[in-house]
Design the sequence.
């Protein structure tokens, strides 16, 4: 399923926050991504309308099955690419920043090759 890069970033952020805090609210996303409240509010409405998230009465945000699938894919790419860059001697900060840019555009074939190659170095 192909969605906009910005939506992938939001879904990945929701997954990371959920893993760290156990629950996610819009303000958590605002703080995590350093975006404005109105921007996050608009994005959450769009993600909900497209079936990627659900919200309850208390304002907690949950990934749907489709949202979780996308978030996990992007987050795995981020982790693997960051690891690859760091093994090549790139600083952690640069590795994370570069991984964030590439994770949305890399082909499945290239990503699978990188994952396979990294297994040889563990």
Sequence:
């Amino acid at each position: 399923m192909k969605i906009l890069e910005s939506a992938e970033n939001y879904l990945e952020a929701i997954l990371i926050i959920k893993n760290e805090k156990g629950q996610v609210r819009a303000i958590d996303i605002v703080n995590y991504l350093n975006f404005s409240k109105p921007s996050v509010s608009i994005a959450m409405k769009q993600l909900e309308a497209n079936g990627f998230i659900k919200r309850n009465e208390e304002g907690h945000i949950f990934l749907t099955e489709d949202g979780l699938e996308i978030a996990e894919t992007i987050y795995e790419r981020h982790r693997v690419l960051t690891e690859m860059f760091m093994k090549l001697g790139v600083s952690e900060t640069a590795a994370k920043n570069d991984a964030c840019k590439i994770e949305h555009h890399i082909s499945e074939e290239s990503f699978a090759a990188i994952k396979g190659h990294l297994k040889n170095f563990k």
About this structure: The beta strands are 53-55, 61-63. The helical segments are 5-21, 26-33, 37-49, 65-87, 92-102, 108-119.
